[in-house]
Design a protein that fits this description.
Order of helices and strands: HHHHHHHHHHHHHHHHH
Number of strands: 0
Largest sheet: none
Strand content: under 5%
Distance between the termini: 37 Å
Length: 360
């Protein structure tokens, strides 16, 4: 691994100084996206192979300390980089259009692949009954963030019954992230660091209040409370705003890792974890190892995240009850990687070319 750029100035380096020294393109974020997406796939391999109860036991055992960090780090990473994009594209309407271009086309294609290509092959129903079922048509609500997990007669005998793509549960919260950031920008998020910090604190208080009012502890089998992910996204945006004053420190990152893992396990206190999770994420992302051929050729993380679920369930369906977690992962990873590469080169990258015209 090599670190590009000139030697830093004496004294503690800030995140902003390192960001500038690396021309705003540290490779750590590219590797993190790919690693985190793959870890989601591995965690779901266990779930689809052994079922919900086994997955619940895994997440609430010792392994859960690390697993519970995956999605919060994913959202923190997104918040940090998206805030940078927002500064480069201060027009909010144009910024939101760019985000839609990044998310929406690939999501629509994945829903099509699951519903029209995979579903008819694995359903226990006659093909005519499959396509005439209202459940089939309701599945298309996934394209607008209204999540449906079931296709008619699909994966109903799998250990993780009926669920086509569990990963889609985060899509509404991702849309909520952009809605929340847009609202904060409109009421002054970019005016000063003090206002930015106050707004983030207010969002945290609101989430805690909602949890207490509803009596919802937020504990989920195999995942965390959705709006904690939104707080992680907003924490990432806040750290980008604070980058000029934020030290880039390995000891701080290690402390943040411990605090993040501990707080995410504690009822209600996990709403305080996002800042620590975001700092660890930013520190790792600002590392700058040499880019491999895979990293340089495209961003396959979104495709892995989208396609892993239906592919893993299809592997379980094909292998039958003798399927194992390791066998599922070993087969699912290369198949999912192939779909992710096709998604990037045939869908995501071509649509991103529209970005040039919008920015212009």
């Amino acid at each position: 691994m090599t670190d590009s750029g000139s030697d830093p100035a004496p004294g503690p380096e800030t995140v902003a100084a390192r960001w500038t020294r690396l021309n705003g393109r540290p490779a750590g974020f590219d590797y993190m996206r790919l690693v985190l997406a793959t870890l989601v796939l591995l965690a779901h391999s266990y779930q689809v192979t052994y079922g919900t109860e086994a997955s619940f036991a895994l997440w609430h055992g010792p392994a859960g300390l690390g697993l519970q960090m995956i999605l919060p780090m994913f959202f923190s990473l997104s918040g940090f980089l998206v805030c940078g994009s927002l500064e480069r594209t201060p027009n909010l309407r144009k910024f939101l259009t760019l985000r839609i271009i990044r998310i929406y086309p690939a999501l629509c294609v994945e829903v099509f692949v699951s519903g029209v290509l995979i579903g008819p092959l694995v359903t226990v129903l006659p093909v005519g009954d499959y396509f005439s079922s209202h459940v089939f048509y309701e599945y298309w609500f996934n394209t607008v963030g209204y999540i449906h997990y079931i296709l008619p007669g699909v994966f109903q005998d799998n250990p993780f019954q009926n669920v086509v793509n569990a990963s889609l549960w985060t899509v509404p919260y991702e849309l909520e992230c952009y809605a929340a950031l847009s609202l904060l920008v409109l009421i002054g998020f970019r005016r000063s660091l003090v206002i930015s910090a106050i707004m983030f604190a207010a969002c945290t208080v609101v989430v805690i209040g909602v949890l207490q009012y509803t009596g919802d502890t937020g504990i989920r089998p195999g995942g965390t409370y959705g709006r904690v992910l939104v707080l992680c996204f907003l924490a990432g945006t806040l750290l980008f705003r604070m980058r000029d004053h934020l030290p880039y420190s390995a000891p701080f990152a290690m402390a943040a890792a411990v605090l993040g893992m501990v707080l995410l396990r504690l009822e209600y206190l996990y709403c305080i974890a996002p800042l620590f999770v975001a700092y660890l994420t930013v520190w790792l992302g600002m590392l700058n190892p040499r880019r491999s051929i895979v990293i340089s050729s495209g961003d396959y993380s979104y495709g892995i995240y989208l396609y892993a679920g239906p592919i893993q369930q299809s592997v379980v369906w094909a292998l039958g009850p003798a399927n194992s977690f390791l066998a599922n992962a070993a087969l699912s990873i290369p198949i999912t990687a192939a779909f992710a590469m096709l998604s990037w080169h045939l869908v995501e990258k071509p649509f991103l070319k529209v970005k040039r015209y919008l920015v212009r």
